[in-house]
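User: Run a structure prediction on this.
Assistant: Running it now.
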Amino acid sequence: MKLYYNRTKIVATMGPASGKKDVLLAMIKAGVNVCRLNFSHGRPEDHKGVIDIIREINAEYNTNVGILADLQGPKIRIGLVKDGGIHLVNGTQIKITTQECIGNDEQIYITYDTFPQDVQADEIILLDDGKLQLRVISTNRLDTVICEVVHGGILTSRKGVNLPNTKVSIPSLTEEDLINLQFALKYDVEWIGLSFVRTGQDIVELKEIIKQSGKAAKVIAKVEKPEAIDNIDEIIAATDGVMVARGDLGVEMPLEEVPLLQKMIARKCRAASKPVIVATQMLESMITTPRPTRAEVNDVANSVLDGADAVMLSGETSVGEFPVIVIETMAKIVRNVEELGYPFNAAKEAQINPASVTDLSNALCESAVHLAQSTDAVGIVSMTTSGYTAFEISSHRPKASTYIFTSNKQLLNALSLVWGVRSFYYDKLESTDDTINDVNNILKAAELIKTGDVVINTAATPITKQGKTNMLKVSVIE
C-alpha cells in the first residue's frame, strides 16, 4: 500500500464515524499514524473492535499504525438537572452539594466528594467548558458550597466542571481509569494517555502499574491544568511524551496564554527528546463541513512550525461527517509547511556531559544529524531495541529521512507517534558491517534510497548486544 509520510504525525480519534474497516483504511492511506481510543466515551467492546481492525490493517498492509488509549481521568461533572436544563441568573446564589439530587434553581449536585473541603472562598467555578461562571461565597467543609452566579445561562445535565483556582485532591487515576488501563494493557496498546496530570509523581505511579503488569506501554502526560504548567519540567522528565490538551487548558487558564504555553511545552519536550502532541479543535468546523476555516489552517500550520511531533483530531474523526476528507486536509497542510517552511536542523537546547554514557550517545546522534546535513545524506539509518536512538535523532529534526530498524515489535507501532521516524522490523543481527549492508539493501529494495545515495548509519557495537549508540558510519549506496 503506497502511503505518503509526513514528518509531523497525525493522531485521529476513533468513534462511530471511523469505526469501520474501509473508512479507517482510507484514513490510514490519507495519513493517519496513530489511532486514539477515547475512554471518556464508548464501551470496552467498541474499543476492542477498533483495536482488532487496526491490527488487521497493520498485518495485511504492512503498516505500523500505533494506538493511544486515552484515560478519562478525574473529570468532575454536575449531576442531573430538572427538565433537562435550568437557568442560572447573574447575581443570584446557588448551592453545590455532594449529596446526590436532581438539580434545580436552588442547588445542583457535583461528582466530587471532597469539593467542600478543597474549595476556598472567592475561587472560580467554571461549568460547561467555561460558558457559565460561579464564584465561591462560602463552604461548610462538609457537603455544601454556596456560590454566586457571575456569568449565567442554561445549565444542562452532566456538564463538566473546571476549577482553575482549586488544588484538587482527587487522584489522577480513578477506579474507572484503573479498569480501563488494565483493558488497554491486556491488548498491548503502545501509548497510554493520562488526563489532568498535575505532578511528575502522577506519571511515576502510572508507569509503576504498567511495569507491574509486565507491559511496555509508554505514557503521554496530558497537560490541561495550571498545576501541570507549574510542574512542567518534572512532568516532562518523568513521562515518555506530552499532549498539549488545549481544551481544558484553555478553560482553566486565560485563553491568551495558551499559544505561548504551547510553544514553551514543544520547546522543552524537544530539548528532552520527548514527543509532543498538539490537540483540540484543530479542524473543528470540519465535523459538519468539508472545508476548514482559514484560522484552523493557520492553527495546524503553526503547530507544525512550533515543532509538534503530532497534531491530533478529536470530534472531526470520531463523530464528524467527513473523517477521510479531514485527514486528507490535515495531511496537505502539514506537507505544505514541511516542504516550504519547516526549519529543519534547528538548534536544540541541550548540554553534553562527557562523563555520561547517555550524553555521549546523544552527542553521537546529534553528530549523525549534522553529518547528514553536511554530506547531503538522504537518510539516517539506525538500530534500536528501546527506541532511545529514534527519539534522540528525531528531536534534532533532521532534513534527512529517519529509518529505524528494531526487533521490538511493539516499538514499531510506538514510533509512529515520533516526528519523522519510519520503522522496520529487523532481527538478523550479525556483524556490524553485515547488518549495516543488510538494512541499507532493505531500504534500497523498498525504493527509499538508490545507488549513489549517501546515508548515515548508527548502531551500538558490538551489534549483537544491547547498548547505547556508539558507532557512526557514512555509507554510499552501491
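The first strand starts at residue 9 and ends at 13.
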